[in-house]
Amino acid sequence: MKTRIAFIAAALAMSLSASAATPTEQLVRQADAWDKAIIRKDSAAIAANMAEDFRQISARGDLAGKAAFLEVIMSPRLVINPYTVEDMDVRFYGDVALVSGSTRMTGSWDGKPFGSHYRYVDVYVRKDGQWRVANVQITEIKE
């Protein structure tokens, strides 16, 4: 009985601490989970974080919608090594949040290694209580 009570108390404490997270902490965790889903090529998790009208603006100015973005990310030709985000900043404007930072990314395309260093801004929009990334823009940082 004591074990069961201790388990219930621990579960309650964990749920309270999770719900006590600030909106910034929640969005940081969501953005981090999206990055990890991209690395492991979890199509369902990647898509679940994206707005239906999602678009990406590449460092060259190219546009890609949700389907095109997913197609490239899920391509077996692309391998992305684990990476970290530096200098993450989250700013809220009502139901819009800007998540920005910089990333050094390595991986390969068709077996050829690549490396990139870029700044990004992800625009999240809250709809029906859920945050979804609606726009991603990246800018290359020259070394």
TrEMBL record:
| Signal peptide residue numbers | 1-20
Keywords recorded for this protein, A-Z? Signal
The record places domain DUF4440 at: 30-133
Q: Record keywords: Phosphoprotein included?
A: no
Q: Does the keyword Signal apply?
A: yes
Q: What is the name of this protein?
A: DUF4440 domain-containing protein
